[in-house]
Amino acid sequence: MEIIFLICCVALLMVSLLVLLYRVAREDMHATFLESGGFKFVVKGGTLEKILDDVKGFYIDTETLELKPEAPRVSDEEKIPRRKRGLLERSMGILWVSWLWPIKRIHKFRVVADRAKTGENDLILRRQISFEVREETYLRARFVHPVLITDVELAKDKWKVDMVLKLDLSIFKPATVVFGYKGTVAVMEQIDAAVRAATIDFCNEEDMDYAKFLSEDKGANSKLARMILDLNKPKADTSPENNIAFKGVKDHFGVEIRAAWFEAADLSPEQHELDEAAKAVDKETLLANAKEQIARGEKAMAQALLEGRAEGLSAIVKKLKESGVNISDEQLGRIIFEEVRTGNLAGINSKLTTYVESGGYGVVPTIDINQKEENR
Description:
Layout: H1 2-26, E1 31-33, E2 38-44, E3 47-54, E4 58-60, E5 67-69, H2 87-92, E6 94-96, E7 104-106, E8 109-116, E9 129-136, E10 139-140, E11 142-153, E12 160-171, H3 174-180, H4 184-203, H5 210-215, H6 223-229, H7 249-253, E13 255-267, H8 269-323, H9 329-341, H10 351-358
Antiparallel strand pairs: 1-6, 2-3, 2-7, 2-10, 4-5, 8-9, 11-12, 12-13
Helix pairs in contact: 4-6
């Protein structure tokens, strides 16, 4: 009976210890949990002691503190400089830190928590990205980072555009990011600045206008994407102020840009206003030109009608004279007047016809214009 009681007490104690261990691990005190795909850092008195890593297919080299891909061993005697996983981690996913908390503890650092907001395409891009700086104990090994670039002037037409680019970033020197730059805030700021400079160079091409900008490939294989990927490589700075070789984003910050692409692009808000104003001016100009063309058309039509009437009247006079009819000027005038009134020359919509009909004499020609001179 005593043995059973002892076993129950031991079991209860073990359960209590596990519950306690779970709670302290949740609080990153004597132990911790490590989410797959990232890192945590154990410090002793503020100095880095070791990196806890869990990245599939990769491991942290304990000598260089760099993330390296897994590789098959050449021989069983070959030793890979990597941390050993304890029993708690293998069985329960709990990583033991130390009894000496808080002297030895999980390190906290500042990170940029940013994300692109979802919305309609015509929303102002400045409202499509939210930025937040907060303290964390966990650093992701790979993540997507949005970059907002505003008021970039296109070389040819001087229009300004805003755009959101997405960067696929991979951290392979986590100690450099967290301890060299005190977190991701400064690193992201400098990477954003480098990406903005590359984007400005892209938009400063001589033939770049808004139409060409819209037609450009916006995917991961675009020209701008290749220019951004080139930021990983070392580049010599030959400026007089600084001739030190620029290491490139990869070696300088320990962060590699794996891919880049356009997420959204639009005219800058100020350019939108100028564009709307230009459209209004163009509309007024088109309306004015249309009115001018209509006026010219009406004038030409009126002139053509008048010329037609004149030619028609001349033909009547000529025919009467050629027929040899002896007719007075008064009779000739009445015949022409009647021709105009009945619309044979002016037409039913003519102002002249309307005027004549309102004051016409109702004269009907009484002379046969085919009468020969001998019948007079």
